[in-house]
Amino acid sequence: EVQLVESGGGLVQAGGSLRLSCAVSGFTLEGYAMAWFRQAPGKEREGVACIRRSDDSTHYSDFVKGRFTFSSDTAKNTVYLQMNSLKPEDTAVYSCAATRAWGCYDYEFWGQGTQVTVSS
After folding, report:
1. What is the pLDDT of residue 53?
2. Which stretches of the chain drop beneath a pLDDT of 70?
3. Among 83, 78, 107, 106, which residue's Cα sits nearest to residue 94?
4. Which residues contact 88 (CB under 8 A, 6 or more apart)?
5. What are the distances in angstroms from CA 19 to CA 47, 81, 88, 94, 109?
6. The predicted structure's pLDDT at residue 101
7. Which among 48, 50, 95, 100 could disulfide-bond with 35, CB atoms 3.0 to 4.6 Å apart, if both were Cys?
């Protein structure tokens, strides 16, 4: 059974940091490309960062560039999102996703998400 389980969310003051984790079971990271998405209340889900399987490059949305870092640990079959200099507008449910596609699209497996709340 495939499972993606996020953790690490919480309440933090503006300017603070959090590290989210996404533990994967049911498949190994080598065969998939991972991504982080977020959804704020009343807004559509948006991509935060993704790894493109075709060249193993990492891509960030403009609103997190320079603040967030996407990393992975294949030994632990876990990916991470280090979030620094957090802003109130970063408040959202953050979810990880996996795709076998060569680009950042067609995500077939999703986690349930973890809440991140940034206070001003």
Report:
1. 85
2. none
3. 83
4. 14, 118, 119, 120
5. 17, 6, 16, 11, 21
6. 93
7. 50
Backbone angles phi, psi at 29, to 5 degrees: -60, -25
Would you call 62 exposed, middle or buried from its count of C-beta atoms within 10 A (0-12, 13-18, 19+)? exposed
The number of angstroms, rounded, from the C-alpha of 100 to the middle of its chain's C-alpha atoms is 16
The two structure tokens encoding residue 27: 């498949």
Q: Please state, in angstroms and rounded to a whole number, the distance separating the CA atoms of residues 38 and 24.
A: 18
Backbone angles phi, psi at 90, to 5 degrees: -85, -5
Please give the Cα distance from 57 to 109 (Å, whole number). 20
Q: What is the pLDDT of residue 21?
A: 98
Q: How many Å apart are CA 34 and CA 56, to the nearest integer?
A: 10
d(C-alpha 27, C-alpha 108), whole Å: 12
Q: Which residues of 83-107 are buried (b: 16+ CB within 10 A; e: fewer)?
A: beebeeebbbbbbbbbbeeeebeeb
